[in-house]
Amino acid sequence: MAESLLLQNGRIIDPDNGFDRQGDLLIVDGKVAAVGTPPPEDVQIVDVRGCWVMPGLIDMHVHLREPGEEYKEDIETGTRAAAAGGFTAVACMPNTRPVNDCLAVTSLILERAARGSARVYPVGAISRGSRGESLADFGEMKEAGVVAVSDDGMPVVDSQLMRRALEYAADHRLTVISHSEELFLSRHGVMNEGPVSTRLGLKGIPAAAEAIMVYRDIALAEYTGRPVHIAHVSTAMATDLIRAAKTRGVRVTAETTPHYFTLTDEAVQGYNTNAKMNPPLRSEADRRAVLQGLVDGTLDAVATDHAPHSTLEKDVEFDLAANGVIGLETAVPLTLELVRRGVIDEQRFVRLLSLNPARILNVPGGSLAPGQPADVSVIDPAEQFVYTVDSVMSKSKNSPFLGRSLQGRAVMTLVDGRVMFSRPR
Amino acid sequence: MTSGYNFTQKHILGIHHLSADDIDFILKTADSFKEISTRAIKKVPTMRGLTVVNLFFEPSTRTRLSFEIAAKRMSADTYNISASTSSTVKGETLIDTARNISAMKPDIIIMRHSFAGAPDMLTRYIDASVINAGDGSHEHPSQGLLDMMTVREHKGRLEGLKVTIVGDILHSRVARSDILGFTRMGARVFVYGPATMIPPGLEELGATVCSSLEEAVADADVVMTLRIQKERQKDPLFPSLREYAQKYGINRRILDRARPDAIVMHPGPINRGVELMPDVADGPRSVILDQVTNGVAVRMALLYLVMGNS
Ligand SMILES: [Zn+2]
Ligand SMILES: [Zn+2]
C-alpha cells in the first residue's frame, strides 16, 4: 500500500528548481511526487500554513562523539538534536575514539545511524589516526560509506601529505575538508588575539593562524587542480583569500558557522567556557566580513561544527576547558535572523543550509524535484522561543546561546518521507 | 566622592570592577589602617572570629605573607592552603576544591592561580568573599591598589601624573591592574617594552604605547619596571637577558629623562641587573620598600571592606 503525506499550504522554497511559492507538497512512498499528481484517498494531510517547506537541511560539519565519547553525545541523541533543529542529514567528523580512519569504524557509525533520526554521512580521516603521518585508506572508507575526508580538530601540518590527500581523494570522489590552523601561531592560545584577550589576560590566537593555512590549502588546490573545502571560516583574512581564489577559478569551497557570524570574542567576557571553540570567536570586523562572505557567495555553506562537551570539560578554568559548542538546535533561528534583517534572502538560506552542502559533499538532496527522496525540512519562521537548557535535545548543553530569545524553529523533519521529528504547534 | 557613597563590592576580582570612588575609598581606608602596623602591638580586634583562607595554586612567598600579616593584624584566623595546579588537573577539579573549602565556612578566600579567570569562577560556587591575589596574566588588584597608594603618598595625588610602565606587559597581571587603576584615577599611563611583549589593544585599556624607552620615561612622575620571568625563556620573547638589560633595563642615565622628583617602583622580586640596575633599585628614588609596607595596609583594607558586604 502506498504511504502518502500531503504538506498543505506551505511556502515551498526550492532554489535548485527555481521554486518559491505557496503550495502543497505531496510525498508518496518516501519520494517527492510530481506536481499535479492527485493525492490518494487515504493521504495524510498536514496543514503547514505559515511554514517554509524546504529540501532537507544538511549540516556538513558535526561531531557525534560515537564511538568513544558517548557520555557527550551519541549517534542517537545527536541525530535527534539534528532532526529537532531542522536537519535531515549531518556529516560527522572522524575525531572519535578510535578515529574513523578505516572501514570498521565507518561501518559501525553507519550501523548505528540506521536507527537514528537523520541521515549520517561519515567523514573519514585524511591520515591514519589523524596523526598527520600517512594517508588513511580512502578507497576502502569510500566503499564503506564516507563522503569526505578530514583530520578535523587538527590541521594537516605536512604540506606534502595535504597535497597527496587532495590528489588521492579526487580519484575516489571524496571531498577534502581542511581544518585550517597554523599550529605554531595558535600554540597555547585559548581565544582570539585582540583587545579582549589582552584585557582578560588570556593567550590569544591571531587571525593569521587561520589565514596562513587557508592560503596553503588554496595554493595546493590551485597547483594540483583539485578541490578543497575550508571548514569553519572565522576571519576576514581567510574570507578575502577564498574570495580572491574563487575569482581566479581555484576549486575552493568554504563553510562558516552561526557562532562566527553572530558572536564576537566579547562573548568570552566573564571567562565563559561556552564561548570557547577552535577557531575562536573573532572581532566585530571579522564577524562582518564573514557575513559579507555569506552574502556574496565567497562562503558556500552554513554548518554548525556541533561539538558536544560535558560539564567535565566545560566547568573548569577557561585555559583548561575543551574547545567546542553545540549548534544543531540553534542554526536555523540564527541563520533566519539574517533573512529577517535582509542580509540574505530565503533562496540563499536554502542554498547555504541544503543545496550547497549536498553539492560539496556529492550527496543527494538540496532539491524537491519529483522522484527525489523526500528529505524535507518544515520550519515556522515566526515561532519565538527561549533557548533553555531543558529544551536541549543534545546530551551536552555547551551552547553560548542558552537563555537567548530566538525566532524560527523546525516544525517537522522528514527523511525518506518518514517523520523524524515533529513539534506540536 | 559623591555623598551617600557605599562600598558594595563583595569580591575583589580586579580593578576592572572598581569605580574611581571604590578605589579612593579603599586607599583612604588603607591610609587609616597603616598606622596600626607602626604600633608596638600591631593588632586590632576588628575581624576577630572570622576565617580567612589563603588558597594559593601558584607559589608565592611575598603576596601570601602580606595577606597573612594583614589578616592577623585584624585578628582574623588564617589558614594557608598551597595546592599545585597540576594536582587539580589530574584529580580534584577547582570546583571540588572550592566546594570542600566552602563547606568549612570560611569568610574570605584569597586566591592566587596561574589561570586567568579562576577567581571569577570560584565566586560562582562558593558563598565566601573572594579576593584575587593574582590570576594568570589577568589582574593583581591588591598590587595595583598598593601601587596607587604608594604613588599618592609620595605625590599627594594621582590625577594628571605620568606613570610609565616598562617590561613584559603581555604576561603581567600587575601591568593590567595598574593601567586600569591609574587611568581610572586620572593619571596617564605610558607603556614600553619589546614589541613581542606588548599585547594588542592596550589603548582600549587606557594606556599609551611608546616607541622608545626615552619617550616612555621622558618627564615621567613614576617609572615602574616589571619583573622579567626567566622561566618564560623557554618561549623566548627577546634574544637574551644581556640584551634586555641593555635595551630595556632602567639605569640612572635613562632615569635622568624623568622628572627630577620621579619615583621608581617595582612589584618585586627584582632581577637586579636585568630590568632594574642596582644603583636605581637601591637609590634614593626607589620606593620599592614603601610598596611592600603599603601592601599590608591595602590588604587590611580589602579584608575589612569586603567583610562589610558578605
Ligand atoms: Zn575544526
Ligand atoms: Zn569540527
Descriptive tags:
heterodimer; A: 425 residues; alpha/beta; Urease, subunit C, domain 1; TIM Barrel; 2 domains; eight-stranded mixed beta sheet; eight-stranded parallel beta sheet; 13 helices; globular; B: 310 residues; five-stranded parallel beta sheet; four-stranded parallel beta sheet; binds zinc ion
Largest sheet of chain B: 5 strands, parallel
Beta content of chain A comes to: 15-25%
Please give the count of helices of chain B: 13
The CATH architecture name of the largest domain in chain A reads Alpha-Beta Barrel
Structural class of the secondary elements of chain B? alpha/beta
First-to-last CA distance of chain A: 29 Å
Point out poorly predicted stretches of chain A.
Answer: none
> What is the CA-CA span between the terminal residues of chain B?
23 Å
Percent range for β-strand residues of chain B: 5-15%
Low-confidence parts of chain B: none
Average pLDDT score of chain A: 97
Number of domains of chain A: 2
Bound molecules: zinc ion
Major pleated sheet of chain A: 8 strands, mixed
Query: What is the β-strand count of chain B?
Result: 9
Q: Strand order, main sheet of chain B: write it out.
A: 7-6-5-8-9
Rg result of chain A? 21 Å
Describe the structure.
The complex is a heterodimer of chains A (425) and B (310). The two termini of chain A are 29 Å apart. The longest helix of chain A has 17 residues, at 208-224. In chain A, helix 6 (195-200) links the parallel strand 11 (191-192) and strand 12. Chain A has helices spanning 75-84, 103-113, 138-144, 159-171, 183-186, 195-200, 208-224, 236-247, 258-262, 284-296, 311-314, 331-340, 346-361; strands at 4-14, 19-28, 31-32, 44-47, 52-55, 57-62, 87-92, 119-124, 148-150, 175-178, 191-192, 204-205, 228-230, 252-256, 301-302, 376-386, 405-415, 418-422. In chain A, strands 1, 2, 3, 4, 5, 16, 17 and 18 form an eight-stranded mixed β-sheet that branches. An eight-stranded parallel β-sheet of chain A has the order 6-7-8-9-10-13-14-15. Chain A is globular, with a radius of gyration of 21 Å. Chain A has 13 helices and 18 strands. Chain A folds into two domains: 4-52 and 372-422, Urease, subunit C, domain 1 (Roll); 56-361, Metal-dependent hydrolases (TIM Barrel, Alpha-Beta Barrel), CATH 3.20.20.140. Helix content of chain A is 30%, strand content 23%. Chain A is of the alpha/beta class and 425 residues long. The model of chain B has no long low-confidence stretch (mean pLDDT 93). In chain B, helix 2 crosses helix 13 and helix 6 crosses helix 13. In chain B, the strands form two sheets. A five-stranded parallel β-sheet of chain B has the order 7-6-5-8-9. The two termini of chain B are 23 Å apart. The radius of gyration of chain B is 19 Å and the shape is globular. Chain B is α/β, with parallel strands linked by helices and 310 residues long. The A-B interface holds A 193-204, 270-271, 315-320 and B 16, 89, 93-95, 113, 115-118, 120-121, 135-139, 173, 176, 199-202, 204-205. The structure holds zinc ion (2 copies).
